[in-house]
Specification:
It is a single chain. This protein is of the alpha/beta class. It folds into 2 domains: 137 residues, Rossmann fold (3-Layer(aba) Sandwich); 60 residues, DNA polymerase, domain 1. 52% of the residues lie in helices and 14% in strands. It is built from 12 helices and 6 strands. Strands 2-1-3-4-5-6 form a 6-stranded mixed beta sheet, sandwiched between helices. Strand 3 and strand 4 form a beta hairpin. The two termini are 22 Å apart.
């Protein structure tokens, strides 16, 4: 998956989301955001290596909640991105009028999502959703430009920490994922040899991450 450049604001939008949320996509373009449409396994909008957004209208939220797959989606989002965001579009106070779900159940679900580490942002309309996404993209670009190192370098006598530090240099790989990979493959070199199997062997690693890591590992360096 292509990661947005720092030279301009760019958001990767899931191809299915692009067809059902045309108003949001059009508004993003009007705001000066470059929109790249791709098939995404996780999330509706990828803003950076760390930030991805799942957008749900109130009716979408009710549907996934009653089907009991809402929390599974949120867990996948959290395991793939270190700063996951759920944008809830619409008026949640209308839920009891369109569903038998009580407001207490709705609030409990939102609290559970927040406890899982997913930020919940309310949005009154598709236009506001686009502005939220654009604001996140702008803030993330600023952060990316200011951050010079990924983590504090380990002491030279701690090989395990050096191995983790090395793995964290790969895109979308934080400390938790680095440790999970090393637990499975034991050494960084064995992990890199078997990167194609990460999504099957390592919890919290999906095909999106594998594709991005392979892109970095296999693309010839350009001066």
């Amino acid at each position: 998956m292509h990661i947005p450049s720092k030279a301009y604001l760019e958001v990767v939008v899931d191809s299915r989301e692009a067809s059902t949320a045309k108003h949001v996509v059009d508004e993003l373009r009007e705001l000066g955001v470059r929109v790249r449409v791709e098939f995404l396994e996780v999330g509706d909008y990828v803003i950076s290596r760390d930030v991805a957004v799942e957008r749900k209208t109130v009716s979408d939220f009710v549907s996934t909640l009653t089907k009991r797959n809402l929390f599974e989606q949120m867990d996948r989002l959290r395991s793939s991105f270190s700063k996951p965001v759920l944008i809830l579009e619409g008026d949640i106070s209308s839920i009891p009028m369109i569903s038998s779900i009580s407001m207490n159940a709705v609030l409990g679900a939102l609290a559970s999502i927040a406890r899982r580490g997913v930020s919940v942002l309310p949005s009154p309309s598709p236009s506001a959703t686009a502005r939220l996404i654009a604001s996140l993209a702008k803030q993330e670009r600023k952060t990316d430009q200011q951050v010079k190192v990924r983590v504090k370098p380990p002491k030279r006598d701690d090989i395990s920490e050096e191995q983790i530090f090395f793995m964290c240099g790969l895109p979308m790989i934080g400390r938790e994922r680095a440790e999970a990979i090393l637990r499975v493959y034991r050494t960084p070199i064995e992990a890199l040899k078997r990167v194609d199997g990460w999504s099957k062997m390592v919890d919290g690693i999906g095909e999106t991450i594998v594709k991005r890591v392979k892109e970095v590992l296999e693309t010839p360096f350009k001066h």
